[in-house]
Amino acid sequence: MDNKPKPAGARPQQRGGARPENKDQHRINNHIRAREVRLVGDNVEQGVYSLQEALRLADELELDLIEISPNAEPPVCKILDYQKYLYQQKKRQKEQKAKAAKVVVKEIRFGPQTDEHDYNFKLKHAMEFLKEGAKVKAYVFFKGRSILFKEQGEVLLLRFVNDLDEYGKAENMPVLEGKRMIIMIAPKKK
Length: 190
Known about the structure:
The structure is a single chain. By secondary structure, the protein is α+β, with helices and mostly antiparallel strands. It folds into two domains: 29-95, Ubiquitin-like (UB roll); 105-187, 2-Layer Sandwich (Translation Initiation Factor IF3). Helices cover 31% and strands 25% of the residues. The chain is built from four helices and nine strands; from the N terminus they run ββαββαβαβαβββ. The protein has helices at 51-60, 82-99, 116-132, 150-163; strands spanning 36-40, 47-50, 64-69, 76-80, 105-110, 135-141, 168-170, 175-177, 180-187. Strands 5, 6, 7, 8 and 9 form a five-stranded mixed beta sheet that branches. Strands 2-1-4-3 form a four-stranded mixed beta sheet. Strand 8 (175-177) and strand 9 (180-187) form a beta hairpin. The longest helix has 18 residues, at 82-99.
């Protein structure tokens, strides 16, 4: 056993040439386990090669053999610079994330006996939210014994959806969850 003090921040050595397997990492070069691989890409003639032949081609080009699709039969590999490949993957994921639609949900709360002025005020706000492309989650909150007025709450929400008909449509009927009766309204596509 070696009893020399290790420098601060030193990493423990890995045994057996194994490397940690993360979900986002691919097998490269000598870590590929298949006997045959299907090569694809720009810098090589596409086809099925033995692993040794594919590694030799990658070595000649001074690049890495990267397993792209390990579940295919035989596994699909590319000859590329591994760091460049990881960079391209991250860049692609970032672009997809930016393109993903961000759904904004605005909440509007009513009481079972909301008066006309409050109702119209909240209706106007909901119209603006739907014009902006946000979803509206309208709910009637029942306090104490007001739960007896469930029907009034449902009528109020259905009237609300009906008044917003030209701006959005209800995704479902009013649903009672605990002390809240909820309805979701999605904006209409333009």
